[in-house]
Design a protein that fits this description.
By secondary structure, this protein is an alpha/beta fold. About 55% of the residues lie in helices and about 5% in strands. The chain has 2 domains: about 200 residues, 3-Layer(aba) Sandwich (Rossmann fold), CATH 3.40.50.300; about 120 residues, Zinc Finger, Delta Prime, domain 3. It is built from 16 helices and 5 strands. Strands 2-3-4-1-5 form a 5-stranded parallel sheet, sandwiched between helices. β3, α7 and β4 form a beta-alpha-beta unit. The N and C termini lie far apart (about 55 Å). The structure holds zinc ion. The site of zinc ion has 9 residues, from α3.
Length: about 375
């Protein structure tokens, strides 16, 4: 199970409620994305389903803890937004995506709606929690608890319930089945019915502190301190975003090498080298090519700014700034606009399915001329 970043106060309060046998039947975890609501919900579910909790904390050893840790406990139920599959009649329900959902959670509980859409292999569709889901909730909760203790139902992003589903859920919350704990995990609780809000105990999450994010990045992801601080700073208290930034950084490291290669060859007028270079880039997928050109644009801008020596305006990492010491002078007021136009044009051409070998070879040739201005 994912380790939790920060949120010590909330965790302590939940543990106390469990220890004192005062767990409300419905909790609403609300607050900004990436603050760890789902991670805390999962840990709390583990404590609720643990055979030997210690001061409201899960023991981590018992069968209950192990099954919850793998998200397969028979008394742990999940509801989350889903999309209808092609040719499917009737509503889609969470159970149809349970395998994918568990896979996502096994990777990390710091997951956002976008990640989930990608995991369901859709991008531009809207996922929702449909009315058929409420019937499933009723059915699942009418079963007696398999292990003789609590039943836990985690509802992720309840704001994506349609109206009928929300009304049915309300009825369930009004007459809650015994020994059942609902945990609603919401990024946008303003969108929930006020009648649902009034049936739940609100647990308000704050964005994580930069210190908490940075130390988690060092301990959990093995980052160097400077990188961890930079990413924590960019992430604004959102750990999910910080984790994504690590992946972007890894890609950018690769992009950086490619850019340096090209600039060196442009400086040496190595046409053959540029040709080979463009053929290698042409083998990438178009999305990656676009990401690369976005990165080039960023680097061009940063190097232009570097010449003014205003550190607050530069956001490059160590490797990039080291490179700028020698390179920045090649990006100046005589060429910066045209270089940026050349990058943007290449990006547009990638989007319009122009032959990528030509796009990147032309781009290289233009850079030969531009960087000596
Ligand atoms: Zn346990």
């Amino acid at each position: 199970m994912t380790s939790i970043v920060g949120q010590k106060e909330i965790q302590a309060r939940l543990a106390r409620q469990l220890h004192e046998n005062a767990v409300p039947h419905a909790l609403l975890f609300c607050g900004p994305e990436g603050s760890g609501k789902l991670a805390v919900a999962l840990r709390f579910a583990q404590a609720l389903l643990c055979k030997n909790p210690n001061d409201g904390q899960p023991c981590g050893q018992c069968q209950g803890c192990k099954m919850t840790g793998d998200f397969v406990h028979p008394d742990l139920h999940f509801v989350f937004p889903v999309i209808k599959q092609k040719g499917q009649s009737g509503d889609a329900v969470s159970d149809m995506y349970l395998k994918e959902w568990r896979e996502v959670l096994r990777t990390s509980a710091y997951v956002d709606y976008q990640d989930w859409l990608e995991r369901m292999l859709v991008q531009n569709q809207q996922a929702q929690i449909a009315v058929a889901e409420s019937d499933q909730i009723l059915r699942k909760l009418s079963l007696t608890s398999q292990q003789g203790g609590y039943k836990v139902m985690i509802i992720w992003l309840p704001e994506l319930m349609n109206v009928q589903a929300a009304n049915k859920l309300l009825k369930i919350l009004e007459e809650p089945p015994k020994q059942t704990v609902f945990i609603l995990v919401s990024n946008n609780s303003d969108k929930l019915l006020t009648t649902i809000l009034s049936r739940t105990q609100r647990v308000a999450f704050k964005p994580l502190s930069k210190e908490d994010v940075a130390s988690a990045l060092i301990q959990q992801c093995g980052l160097q301190e400077a990188d961890a601080r930079r990413i924590a700073h960019q992430g604004a208290g959102n750990f999910t975003r910080a984790l994504k930034q690590i992946r972007v950084d890894a890609d950018n490291g690769d992009f950086f090498e490619r850019f340096v290669q090209l600039m060196r060859m442009c400086y040496q007028r190595d046409i053959k080298g540029i040709k080979n270079w463009s053929e290698e880039i042409a083998d990438w997928g178009r999305e990656r090519q676009k990401d690369f050109l976005d990165y080039v644009l960023y680097l061009v801008r940063e190097n232009f700014m570097y010449n003014f020596q205003i550190p607050e305006l530069n956001f490059m990492n160590q490797k990039e700034s080291d490179f700028s010491v020698r390179f920045a002078r090649f990006i100046n007021e005589r060429n910066v606009i045209e270089i940026m136009e050349a990058v943007e044009e290449a990006r547009r051409d990638v989007g319009q399915n122009v032959n990528p070998k030509m796009i990147f070879f032309d781009f290289g040739l233009r850079m030969i001329v531009l960087i000596i201005r």
